[in-house]
Amino acid sequence: MLFQQLLKRTFCLVFILSYNVSASEIFDLAPSSELSARSELADDFYRQSTVRQTATVQQQGNLNTATIDHRGQRNTAIIQQSGYSNTSLITQRGTGNWTKSVQAGFSNSVSVTQTGEDNIAVATQFYANNTIDIEQDGSWNQAYVSQYGSHNTATLVQNNGSVHNDAWVEQIGYHNTATVTQSGSWNDATILQYGYGNDAQITQSGGNNYAAIYQAGNNNTASIHQDGYNLNTTLVNIGNDHVEVYRFN
Question: Cβ(29)–Cβ(49) under 8 Å?
Fold first, then answer.
């Protein structure tokens, strides 16, 4: 009953930072707590050098925080949150980047930083105390993360001007950790973990590599390191307390 009463008292803290926004920009807060802000160019000079940005925030509950900060052209950021004490931070620099953050529950956190062109990031979390951190620096990279449970952590880094890298992480359970680091081009990484206390790491450099880790159970550890080209590695752990490390140079 207390939680229901708290939900009725909606308090949403929203920060929208859009550069090249004219003084006449209007922020329309709809009854459904949807905030849609679009940057408008102030004069002909800016109209030639900068294209409209789009930021959309929808929040229900209490003490949720959404921050969108973008510079460049045609970047899009969407944040949807329900529950309480959830935090989303999206930072975009460049052209045509697209990010969506969806959270439901409490004390979840998403941070996405995109630099470059046409990168895509999607982060989804449900329940409590989950953390997603995505960093993309390059072009045409894609990162997708879904977490269900509590105290799960996912970190995806696509850096050093990487191009056409794909990363997908899904975790269901508690206290699972997934880390993907990609540089180079056309690399593909997948981590799926179900259970408690599992840890998976994939590191890729070079090009046209594929790596996948599947773990179901508790307290399993898996690591794949690929440095080269046309490498293909799949690691599967089912049960408890397994440790697997694969390194290819």
Answer: no
Helix (H) or strand (E) holding 118: none
> Which residue, 134, 140, 114, 138, is CA-closest to 53?
114
What is residue 185's DSSP assignment? B
Question: Can you read off the two tokens belonging to residue 122?
Answer: 């999607």
- Distance separating alpha carbons of residues 89 and 98, to the nearest angstrom: 13
Residue 124: name the closest of 98, 107, 104 by CA.
Answer: 104
Question: What global pTM score does this model have?
Answer: 0.81
Asked if 193 and 212 touch (Cβ cutoff 8 Å), the reply is no
Q: Which of 141, 152, 149 is nearest to 189 (CA)?
A: 141
Q: What's the one-letter identity of residue 216? A: A
Residues 6+ apart with CB under 8 A from 154: 131, 132, 133, 145, 147, 169, 171, 177, 178, 179
Question: pLDDT tens digits for 192-242?
Answer: 999 999 999 999 999 999 999 999 999 999 999 999 999 999 999 999 999
- Residue whose C-alpha is closest to residue 178's, from 165, 192, 166, 164: 192
Question: Residue 109: its pLDDT value, please?
Answer: 98
Task: Give dist(CA 47, CA 27) in Å, integer.
Answer: 20
Express each pLDDT in 89-148 by its tens digit.
999 999 999 999 999 999 999 999 999 999 999 999 999 999 999 999 999 999 999 999
